[in-house]
Amino acid sequence: MLTHKIVTSPIGVLTLVALDGVLSMVRLGPPAVAGAGTPYGIAAEDGFEDVERQLTEYFEGRRCCFNVDTNPQGTEFQRRVWEQVSGIGYGRTASYKQLAVLLGDAAKARSVGAALAHNPMNLVVPTHRVVGSRGALTGYSGGVDAKRYLLELEQAPQTEHLRRNCLRADSVPA
Length: 174
Known about the structure:
The protein has about 170 residues and is α/β, with parallel strands linked by helices. It has helices at about 50-60, 75-85, 95-100, 110-115, 145-155, 160-165; strands at about 1-10, 10-20, 20-30, 40-45, 95, 130. It starts with a strand and ends in a 9-residue tail after the last helix.
């Protein structure tokens, strides 16, 4: 069964979607059509408590990554890209080209961008940490202002402890 819940955040409305109780999408923005007829299933108040708590902690600067069961839908290549993006440490960035190199072909930077555009797990898979080769803030489904906000949140002085302590061993080099 497909269910969704709309929550507010500092970057606007988020639509949380679960398939059979497993988070399958965190969409920036409300459903295109309100009510039970949305492509995100029926509205539900229950079943999203854990991800809501983690999102609150993230926006309060108390969490650097998410620990929820997910089931994002995508192609094999998209999943590989999302996995690489998940390795970008809190407060760090990587370029589309760096990701393409890690995936074995520097010429696939545009393909990486296309895969990121189809990321159904915004914030949980931190596509906001992917920037242009010269650091330009490009290509974010929530818009450049949301991307800038998220990157600034992760660089705020009060989140220094997260930047120091939340580095993953498999994170993408800065």
